[in-house]
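User: Sequence in, structure out. Go.
Assistant: Echoing your sequence, followed by the structure tokens.
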Amino acid sequence: MKKSLFGAVALLGMISTNLLAQVGPNPREVTIRNITHGGSGCPSGTVSSSVSDDAKAFTLFFDNFVASGGRGTTSADSYKVCNLSIDLRFPQGWSYSIVGVDYRGFAQLDAGVTGQQRSEYWIQGAGTRRIPMRSDIFGPYANDYLYQDRLGVTAVVWSPCGATRALNVKASVAVVGANNSRSGLMTVDSIDGEVKHIYGIQWRRCP
């Protein structure tokens, strides 16, 4: 059974070897204390989370994040957005950054229809800079897909030292070019039926 999502967002549960090799705080002391979320793609009560055993990634689970276009749909159906604020708690003396996102899903798009997935993140207290990620799928297409976004060194934004600040994420999924004669569906999900957005984390010690 598949669950629909943004995002992702669903994402693979596999983080690259270089991320796993990073040094970080005691994984037992890294938790997501709270998630505030809202938007057409993530109504109240439809998002949950977990932190990986090695604290090198966290996963967001979405119950309802899908865009559709074509006969019988509205403009609101073709674009879904989710705004999240993630309260990531970890020991003093560490700073973190998001260095990549893995997500997978399913798209069914007629010729001339495009499925779009966008996300941007920023860390509270780390300035106004936002890091964007995006992917496009062009019809005709009817299959699963997998994308792995990795940030370059110059794009990494670190959380402030000496303070626990929220990670903010704006995610959207859209179907563009659909009409009465051609349709499209864009969703993020996983083979095992769990909807996932997996964010790779890297850590560094504060001075």
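User: And one key feature?
Assistant: The CA atoms of residues 13 and 198 lie 7 Å apart.
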